[in-house]
Amino acid sequence: MGVFGNWLKRRADLAIVQSSARDLERFLVSLRGMDPEELGALVAAATVLRVNLEGARLLPHAALGVGILSVSKQSVLQFRMSEIAQQFQRQGEYASASGAKVWLFTLRACTIPDVRLLGRNIWIELSRGFPYVLTALDDFEAATHIAVSQRVREDFRFVPPGLEPGK
Q1: CB contact set of 68 (below 8 Å; sequence gap of 6+)
Q2: Staple 89 to which of 84, 97, 113, 143, CB 3.0 to 4.6 Å?
Q3: Hey, how many other C-beta atoms are within 10 angstroms of the C-beta on 21?
Q4: What is the pLDDT of residue 150?
Q5: Which 3-state string (H, E, C) describes the chain?
Q6: Confidence band of 73 (pLDDT split at 50, 70, 90)
Q7: CA atoms within 13 A of residue 89's CA, in its CB half-sphere
């Protein structure tokens, strides 16, 4: 790749970082505006989605950590997660769409070092909802008559390695 090709690649990489930073910052602002009960419902939706996608082998658990998968594999997963979020939005399933965005932005933070701090800040905000997740899951079961798996109830405090608050 020549000088022009290198310059073009750097410009494209910078655009990706800037776009990701803007998206994560907007999401972080929305999380900061939520009360803990709302965050609990969001964490509940995100956990149900993660467990279901992992069970269907669409989201490898190993993808949810800093530096674990290659950038190309992470990019494929980000694209897939973006499609899932858009599909939920088209169907009017906004809680599920927000849950998908949790994982989309988490994957970006795991892949792009320049937005890692934003990813940690997202998880700081999400963790404010942890005390309310079980109540949100109970409310979901009561409203829909759909049982939530025990794994969801046990694993909702999962924070991707490398994005733990306090790191």
Answers
A1: 62, 110, 161
A2: 97
A3: 16
A4: 96
A5: CCHHHHHHHHHHHHHHHHHHHHHHHHHHHHHHCCCHHHHHHHHHHHHHHHHHHHHCCCCCHHHCCCCCCCHHHHHHHHHHHHHHHHHHHHCCCHHHHHHHHHHHHHHHHHHCHHHHHHHHHHHHHHHCCHHHHHHHHHHHHHHHCCCCCHHHHHHCCCCCCCCCCCC
A6: confident
A7: 10
Which two three-digit tokens encode residue 100? 């998908």
What pLDDT digit, counting tens, does each position of 12-24 carry?
A: 566 677 888 999 9
Across all residues in the chain, what is the average pLDDT? 90
Both structure tokens of 131: 């005390």
What's the token pair of residue 10?
Answer: 């750097």
User: CB 163: neighbour CB atoms within 10 A?
Assistant: 23
Q: Which residues of 111-143 are buried (b: 16+ CB within 10 A; e: fewer)?
A: bbeebbebbbbbbbbbbbbeebbeebbeebeee
| Buried/exposed code over 7-19 (b: 16+ C-beta within 10 A; e: otherwise) | eeeeeeeeebeee
Region 77-84: what's the mean pLDDT?
94
- Can you say whether residue 156 is alpha, beta or left, with left for phi > 0 and alpha for psi between -120 and 50 degrees? alpha
Please answer whether residues 120 and 165 qualify as being in contact, where contact means their C-beta atoms are separated by less than 8 angstroms: yes
